[in-house]
Amino acid sequence: MAAHREHRSKRITVAVVFGGRSTEHAISCVSAGSVLAALDPERYEVVPVGMTPVGGWSLQPADPARLAIRHGVLPALDSSGPELTVVGDATHHGMSDVLRDVDVVFPVLHGPWGEDGTLQGLFELAGIPYVGSGVFASAAAMDKGHMKAMFRSEGLPVGDYRVISDARWRSDRSGVLEELATVGLPLFVKPARAGSSLGISKVTGPADLEKAIEAARAHDPRVIVEAAVEAAREIECGVLAGVDGTPQVSVCAEILVSPGHEFYDFEAKYLDDGVDLVVPADLPDDVSARVRDLALQAYDVLGCEGLARVDFFVQGDSVLINELNTMPGFTPTSMFPLVWAHSGVDYPTLVDRLIADALRRGTGLR
Questions:
Q1: Given 20, 191, 265, 276, which residue has the most CB atoms within 10 angstroms?
Q2: What is the pLDDT of residue 23?
Q3: Strand, coil or helix: what is 231?
Q4: How far is CA 307 from the centre of its chain?
């Protein structure tokens, strides 16, 4: 089959997979549009594969424009494209007959059923190399509670937090609220397995706590509650696999949220000009070095591959890890591509490097 592929085309066949069942469906579409636009048609044969919000698979047009946010309206996929039946069959080297000759997958899905190891497991079963972290790292990073527990067990600095399981909330709500009262205010309440700041509330009074937990549970029955790090600077850093897989770290960047937003919420990220992204961040050299070193350590602790964005809270000389994202937002104006552009890796080169890394790693135990 490899000889047949080489004879048929010298281009690398890339399946860009996007959409998905999570509440981050629209953001996945926006990221995918940027990736599609960056793939050089002389080097790559592109197969756009969409997953609808209800989980249907279909071939999609290779048209980045239809995946953009227009006038505040978020993109969404429907089932109008040719349907695909997806299976993990390594004997056919693919997920379906249409995708049998795919060389590599670039999965641009955010959140559960995409970024959490489920899709990565499908690619492993199908024997198709894919961009980004494997099953375990993807799953561990998706669950903020497990992620922080792993960081803490390795001595990495994280803030105070509590995880509320669905079973405990339903059986012992009063006990949960009593425990959270010991953490202090303000608090941030978040879905444990979601991103793009969806379902997050800042709680400044005890009366609002239960409502905030229910709002987070609308996205995920598992909730994480974090002690706010007051007056902290939000600093982010990118990690990218080098030619031999050795992780490299970008410059640091800072998020400055406008007064109209209490924190870096979904609207500030995607729907208005609620933030300024400062790249590189104005940090003392020793603090910048500390952030960058912790980013590499966090990447290593979770067993990440390919890429990650690591988010921090910085107060003076104090640095806390907030979270790590294995498939961060991927538009040219998203933080991960921005920090690498300022580190000497432009957007098309970034895409090329990630595909080359996926092909180098292949699938299976490694």
A1: 20
A2: 84
A3: coil
A4: 10
- How many CA within 13 A on the CB side of residue 115? 29
Q: Note the helical H segments in 94-235.
A: 118-126, 135-142, 144-153, 166-171, 173-181, 209-217
In angstroms, the CA 201 to CA 133 distance is 29
Looking at residue 230, its pLDDT comes to 87
Output DSSP code: residue 232: -
Geometric angle at alpha carbon 63, from 338 and 14, rounded to 5°: 70
pTM: 0.89
Instruction: Mark the ranges of the chain whose per-residue pLDDT is less than 70.
Output: 1-9, 91-98, 195-196, 259-274
Domain 141-157+230-361 CATH assignment equals 3.30.470.20: yes
Query: What is 2-130's CATH number?
Result: 3.40.50.20
Cβ atoms within 10 A of the Cβ of 156, count?
16
CA 201 to chain centre: 20
Q: CA 271, CA 141: separation in Å to the nearest integer?
A: 26
**pLDDT score for 96:** 64
Enter the tokens of residue 360.
């180098």
The structural architecture, per CATH, of the domain 161-227 is 2-Layer Sandwich (3.30)
- Determine the distance from the C-alpha atom of residue 267 to the mean position of all C-alpha atoms in its chain, rounded to a whole number: 17
Side by side, the strands of the sheet bearing 83-84 are: 83-84, 57-59, 44-51, 12-19, 104-107
Distance between CA 120 and CA 133 in Å, rounded? 8
